[in-house]
Amino acid sequence: MKRLSLLAAAAAVLLASPALAESPFWPVQPKNAPVAAELRGAWKSRGYGWIVLFGPDGAQLFHTAGGACYPDPRREPDPDGVLGLWRAEGPGVISLTGDPSGTRYQFDRLPNLPTDCISAAGWTPDRVVAFAADTFAEVYPRSAERKLDWAARKAKALARVGPSATDDQLWLALTDLLSGLDDPHVELHGTVQGARRDFEPGEAPTLLRVRAADPAGEEKAWLQAYREGILTGVLKGQGRQAANNRVFWGRVDDVGYLNIVTMGAFARNAAPDDPRPLDAVLDEALAAFVGAKAVVVDVSNNRGGYDTISRRIAARFTDQPRIAYAKVPVGGKGSPQVIRVEPSGAAAFTGPVYVVTSDITVSAGETFTLMMKALPNVTQVGGTTRGAFSDQLPKPLPNGWTLALPAELYRSAKGQELEGRGLTPDVQMTVFPEEELLGGHAKAIADLIARIRAGGVAAPVR
């Protein structure tokens, strides 16, 4: 494929050459000042289905697909945090981002705001269904490989609704449109007849088994057993739980153990992507790991979060810059955004590292694993990850419901396409055995540590 070749060539050049200094990003609207004059006007994103209109006093976001367009119904001027900074990329092309270390979104200038974006035509149920179907057709990753015929799905869903369909009929049409998608980044939320409804068709098989085993359909007993298994079974009462209960760590003789259950929300009184509470814990843990034979980093129950946090943790395990992966928006032209792991300059461990994964490992937990697998000292152990690398793209629908989906392709530095496939471990290990859901994880980790100490886990050849 052309894009695959482009990524492989870009990666080869980047591996052979020192990183060049980048142009800086500038505030879209400096404090107490109007929006930069160069930005004023309409711009359309490459992928993602966005149009943004910049005026002197700020930005207005629109959603577009299939020729339709409507203003974002949320109250915030930048609800997804992508319109804060900008830089020019060439004639009529800019990049926008909320954080230069995160995803950068490229936009092309339009001659004017499309008429459909300011149309007064009502958003009837059939138009909502058509917009959802067109959005998936335009930006959902690997639709052809997944054998997803969005035109056929759209026709079938539209057969369920007309301009005057009820909310119940609309909900059934939309869930039918999305049926069979085993994707944790696909969600539909709405209120039907005064009651909240949620459709999330991508739960991990392990979590489905956990909930099926609990009469209340919850995870409380399993999560409690998971926690106690780590603190008492693996770490024998000598471990620590920190960072808003998101991190467990300790040392088992000459092997360090670090467990991270989310990539964010490390303090109740801080922003969810604030890394400072995590940094303090990592400093303490890695100081305790000095002289260890190896470190186990357990993300087998990691539910995702922020890629910037994933990169910050991975930086603690490398002694030189490494290309980890690249990402491109579905349907977006241009070069991929290449993501590197750079040494943090803080306390680090660059000896043998074993990253433990499972089918629960998802999203930013997966990008973390991908970053770690770019390091020569890392071995992935456990089960294949969930296969949902892309950032989740919110699509608030004009009827007040909320749709979300992935809209990016992630590829390894070698050009391997990963979305919908996941990362296969170097060493297979059952982390959550079906026959022992409550206690199996701790036994698996204890066994892994014993094997590492005995020299029985082979490192990968890359």
Overview of the molecule:
This protein has ten helices and 22 strands. It is an alpha+beta fold and 462 residues long. It folds into three domains: 27-118, Lipocalin (Beta Barrel); 122-215 and 394-408; 219-387 and 422-453, 2-enoyl-CoA Hydratase, Chain A, domain 1 (Alpha-Beta Complex). The strands form four sheets. Strands 1-6-7-8-2-3-4-5 form an eight-stranded antiparallel sheet. A hairpin with a 2-residue loop joins strand 9 (187-192) and strand 10 (195-199). The model is unreliable at 1-20 (pLDDT under 50).
CATH superfamily of the largest domain: 2-enoyl-CoA Hydratase, Chain A, domain 1
Strand numbers in spatial order across the main sheet: 1-6-7-8-2-3-4-5
- For this structure, the CATH topology of the largest domain is 2-enoyl-CoA Hydratase, Chain A, domain 1
Beta-strand segment tally: 22
Question: What's the helix count?
Answer: 10
Mean pLDDT: 91
Q: Note the main sheet.
A: 8 strands, antiparallel
Q: Between the first and last Cα atoms, what is the distance in angstroms? A: 23 Å
Please estimate the helix content. Answer: 25-40%
- Which CATH architecture of the largest domain is right? Alpha-Beta Complex
* Helix-strand category: alpha+beta
- In total, how many domains does the architecture comprise? 3
Radius of gyration: 23 Å
